C-alpha cells in the first residue's frame, strides 16, 4: 500500500519541491563540449554540418533509402517526417502521457520498477550504473502487456486507465506498422533491392519477431539546469528507437570533429529515429548507433516518449551476410542476444569501455572471423543471425 512515506523513501526524490540541485544530482563535465543548434537555420556553413538530417517517407523509396543511408552512416539519427502516423493521435498520446506524469507521486510509485525488472516506474533503468542521479523519472511498459501492466498505476481501471490504454493501443498499432516499413527502408539503405530485402526478411524474420517497448520520460522543471542532466549520454541498445519529443526540446546528439552536442529541434509531428547498438552489429558497423543525452530547463517540464525496437530476448544478433562489403568483408562483431549485450554494457559502464568494442571480433584473427561467419547462418528466431 502506498503511504506518505514515499516522500521520505530513498527511492523517491520530490523534484517538484526542489529549490536547487543537490550534490546527489549534480553532474560534472556537463559543459565540456559546446552545444550547437541542429535546427533548420543551423549549419550556416557550406555543408550544413550541424543540421540534423531529415528523412521524408513520402519521397520515392530509392530517394528515401538514400537519405536513410546517409543519415544512418554519418549521424546514426534523423528526423522522420511523412511517416503517416496522424498528428492528432500523437497529440492525444502526449496528452495522456502528461496526465500520467501529473499523478500524485504515491500513485506513480505503486508501479515502481522492481529490482531486476525492465518494466515499471522510476529513475531511468540506466541510472543504476551511476552514483549521481538524473533529473528525470520514467515509466517503461511493454505494449503487448499494456492492460495488465497499467493496472499497477490505475488499480481501479477507471476512465483515465481506459483512455490511456486505448490511446496507447492505437499508437502501438500504428508504430508497429511504421517500424516494419522503416526496417524495410533500412535494408534498402544497405543497398539491397526490394526483392533482396524481402529475402532477408524471409530468412531472418527480423520484422516478424521484432519486439517493442515503450519508455516515457518526464523531465521536471529544474531550478539550476546547468548542474543537472535529464538523461546521461548513452546509445540505445536495441535495433532502433522512435523518439517523440514534445514541444519542449531537450534531446542532443553527440558529433565529432569538432566534438559538440547538436540540439535536435522539436518538430511538430516528426519522430527522431536513433540507430541502436544491436542495429550497428546487424549492419556490421555500417550504421552507427548515436550517442545522445537529454538536458533539462528552468522554464518548463518536458515529456518524451521512446518506442524501442529490438530482437526477442533469445535471438542472437550478428552481422548480416548482406551487410558485408569488399571494404569490410568479415563480420566485425560476435553474435549476442539483447540480454547478453545489456550485461556487457553494464560492465562497460563500470570500466569506461565501449560495449560495442567488447563484442567486436579481432579482425586480425582470420580463422576466428571465418569460423564465425560460417557458424552465423541464421536459423529461425531463437537462433543465431
Ligand atoms: C527496451 C529498452 C531500452 C532501454 C532499456 C529498455 O529495456 C527499456 C527502457 C530503455 C531505456 C530508456 C532510457 C535510456 C535507456 C538507456 C535506459 O536506461 O532505459 C534505454 C534502454 C536502452 O536503450 O538500452
Ligand atoms: O528525452 C529524449 O528526448 C531522449 C530520450 C532517450 O534518449 C531515451 O528514452 O532513450
Ligand atoms: Fe536514448
TrEMBL record:
What chemistry does it catalyse, as a reaction equation? Answer: gibberellin A20 + 2-oxoglutarate + O2 = gibberellin A1 + succinate + CO2
Top-level lineage group: Eukaryota
Any idea where the Fe2OG dioxygenase domain is?
210-311
Tell me which UniProt keywords the record has, alphabetically.
Answer: Dioxygenase, Iron, Metal-binding, Oxidoreductase
Tell me the segments the record calls region Disordered.
26-48
Q: Which cofactor does it need?
A: L-ascorbate
Any one GO MF annotation of this record: gibberellin 3-beta-dioxygenase activity
- What general EC class does the enzyme of this chain belong to? oxidoreductase
> Does Oxidoreductase show up as a keyword for this record?
yes
Which Gene3D superfamilies did the record assign?
A: B-lactam Antibiotic, Isopenicillin N Synthase, Chain (2.60.120.330)
Q: What is its EC number?
A: 1.14.11.15
Q: Name one GO biological process term.
A: response to light stimulus
Family stated for the protein in its record: Belongs to the iron/ascorbate-dependent oxidoreductase family.
Any idea what this protein is called? gibberellin 3beta-dioxygenase
| Gene name tied to this protein | LOC100835718
Amino acid at each position: 500500500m502506498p503511504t506518505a512515506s514515499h516522500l521520505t523513501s530513498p527511492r523517491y526524490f520530490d523534484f517538484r519541491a526542489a529549490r536547487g540541485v543537490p550534490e546527489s544530482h549534480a553532474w560534472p563535465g556537463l559543459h565540456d563540449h559546446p552545444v550547437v543548434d541542429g535546427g533548420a537555420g543551423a549549419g550556416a556553413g557550406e555543408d550544413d554540418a550541424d543540421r540534423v538530417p531529415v528523412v521524408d517517407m513520402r519521397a520515392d523509396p530509392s530517394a528515401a533509402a538514400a537519405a536513410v543511408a546517409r543519415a544512418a552512416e554519418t549521424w546514426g539519427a534523423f528526423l522522420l517526417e511523412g511517416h503517416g502516423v496522424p498528428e492528432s493521435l500523437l497529440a492525444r498520446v502526449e496528452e495522456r502521457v502528461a496526465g500520467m506524469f501529473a499523478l500524485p507521486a504515491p500513485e506513480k510509485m505503486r508501479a515502481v520498477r522492481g529490482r531486476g525488472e525492465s518494466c515499471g516506474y522510476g529513475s531511468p533503468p540506466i541510472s543504476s550504473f551511476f552514483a549521481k542521479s538524473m533529473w528525470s523519472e520514467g515509466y517503461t511498459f511493454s505494449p503487448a502487456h499494456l492492460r495488465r501492466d497499467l493496472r499497477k498505476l490505475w488499480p481501479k481501471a477507471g476512465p483515465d486507465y481506459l483512455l490511456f490504454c486505448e490511446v496507447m493501443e492505437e499508437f502501438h498499432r500504428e508504430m508497429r506498422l511504421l517500424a516494419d516499413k522503416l526496417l524495410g527502408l533500412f535494408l534498402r539503405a544497405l543497398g539491397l533491392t526490394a526483392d533482396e530485402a524481402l529475402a532477408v526478411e524471409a530468412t531472418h524474420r527480423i520484422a516478424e519477431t521484432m519486439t517493442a517497448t515503450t519508455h516515457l520520460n518526464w523531465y521536471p522543471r529544474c531550478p539550476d539546469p546547468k548542474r543537472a542532466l535529464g538523461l546521461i549520454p548513452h546509445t540505445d541498445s536495441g535495433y532502433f528507437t522512435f523518439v517523440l519529443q514534445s514541444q519542449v526540446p531537450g534531446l542532443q546528439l553527440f558529433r565529432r570533429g569538432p566534438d559538440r552536442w547538436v540540439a535536435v529541434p522539436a518538430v511538430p509531428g516528426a519522430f527522431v529515429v536513433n540507430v541502436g547498438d544491436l542495429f550497428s552489429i546487424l549492419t556490421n558497423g555500417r550504421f552507427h548507433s548515436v550517442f545522445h543525452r537529454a538536458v533539462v530547463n528552468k522554464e518548463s517540464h518536458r515529456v518524451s516518449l521512446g518506442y524501442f525496437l529490438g530482437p526477442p530476448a533469445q535471438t542472437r544478433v550478428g552481422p548480416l551476410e548482406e551487410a558485408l562489403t569488399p571494404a569490410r568483408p568479415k563480420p566485425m562483431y560476435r553474435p549476442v542476444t539483447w540480454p547478453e549485450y545489456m550485461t556487457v554494457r553494464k560492465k562497460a559502464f563500470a570500466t569506461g569501455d565501449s560495449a560495442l568494442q567488447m563484442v567486436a571480433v579481432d579482425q586480425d584473427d582470420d580463422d576466428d572471423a571465418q569460423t564465425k561467419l560460417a557458424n552465423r547462418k541464421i536459423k529461425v528466431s531463437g537462433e543465431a543471425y
